Amino acid sequence: MTERIPRDAMERACMLFGDLVEGRWEKADGELDATLRGQVFTDRFAPVWAKVVDSAGSFERIDAPSARQFGDYTAVDVPLAFAAGGAMGEVVFDQAGKVAGLALEFPYPRPRQPEQLGHPGNLGGRETWEDAGSLRHRRSTPMSCVNVR
Predict the structure, then answer these.
(1) Residue 17: exposed, middle, or buried by beta-carbon count in 10 A (0-12, 13-18, 19+)?
(2) Domain spans in the chain, listed from the N-terminal domain onward
């Protein structure tokens, strides 16, 4: 049985990233579920966002989102366009409609490393995960990404 994607999921995900772009951290924080509320934006997301803007230039627009359902969760990809490149935001909503996860991947799409060319099946760069409570920073060369789960 296929579960339906909530009608407002894509619009809400775009609105959330709109709030983040404008620095309305408190408004965005109100969308988070209880496990994430109060611990994500100012301490963890804001510095990563600043690094993306520093590297990619000024924010230009939010492009058309896409959504998919995974059991009890709805994941929405939100393409973000900057002056010097793109990023991909992801918002994960739980059954109650609260944000249960948030990710920002830059650059997007991820460039392939020269040593990976010619190696079919090698899909990504060297990656390590650093746990920071419920926030996980994904580090790889040359991508910066922050996942909140």
Answers:
(1) buried
(2) 9-148
CA 31 to chain centre: 15
34-45 confidence digits (pLDDT tens) = 988 887 777 778
Dihedral sign for Cα atoms in the order 101, 107, 109, 113: negative
- Record the pTM: 0.73
CA distances to 18, 60, 143 from 52, rounded to whole Å, are 15, 13, 10
| Residue 89 contacts residue 48 (beta carbons within 8 Å) | no
Other Cβ atoms within 10 Å of 61 Cβ, number: 9
Q: Show the tokens assigned to 26.
A: 């408190």
Q: Give the CATH architecture of domain 9-148.
A: Roll (3.10)
pLDDT digits (tens, 9 = 90+) for 63-108: 999 999 999 999 999 999 999 999 999 999 999 999 999 999 988 8
Count Cα atoms within 13 angstroms, Cβ side, for 141.
5
CB 130 within 8 A of CB 121: no
